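Thread: Modeling a multi-component assembly for a lab meeting

Hi all, long-time lurker, first post. My supervisor asked me to bring a structural picture of a complex we are working on to next week's group meeting, and I have zero experience with this. I have the sequence lines for every component (224 residues in total). Could someone generate the structure of the whole assembly? Inputs are pasted exactly as I received them:
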Amino acid sequence: EAGVAQSPRYKIIEKRQSVAFWCNPISGHATLYWYQQILGQGPKLLIQFQNNGVVDDSQLPKDRFSAERLKGVDSTLKIQPAKLEDSAVYLCASSPKYTQYFGPGTRLTVL
Amino acid sequence: SQKIEQNSEALNIQEGKTATLTCNYTNYSPAYLQWYRQDPGRGPVFLLLIRENEKEKRKERLKVTFDTTLKQSLFHITASQPADSATYLCALPPRSGYSTLTFGKGTMLLVSP
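Re: Modeling a multi-component assembly
Sure thing. I ran the full set together rather than chain by chain. Output:
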């Protein structure tokens, strides 16, 4: 079974630029999550989708972050404009019910 | 909201010993609790789920306990190996609903030969 795919793996941008991350979940998993993980911290949920609807986006900084999940499969997370404090690893996970399966993450560096 | 506490200091043990990691929570007792392993540069990997009515769960060399009175879960690795070196995260669901998780900061385990 193929795992959760994410791209790119690494991204370096300057502050105020925009960036987008892509995630392809495990086939058949209805729930998709985006997390932000800052060095030394646990993953922090940004947004949760159930199929193509948003279940929880209470911790998403909506003035600069946006996410969509078209057709209930792939998802993209966008940051516009980026700030220095957005430097982190962005993890995508999918879940059939309780257990979450994570992708390798995208390491974002904002200069 | 739930506050999760895991030892921030790394745990250093010798190969062959039992490693014990602690996860404490401060608010409501969740319906279940999960443990994940995270290696550098990788996403977390699910290890075990224990429900509130289960005192103990085992999987190979791993054992998890869940004490809702103490609001604590213990994660044990017996006969530890250098390959067990990683960061271990505990995660709890919300009071209602079942799939959203709040993760602790994790504890780094270092097993030396």
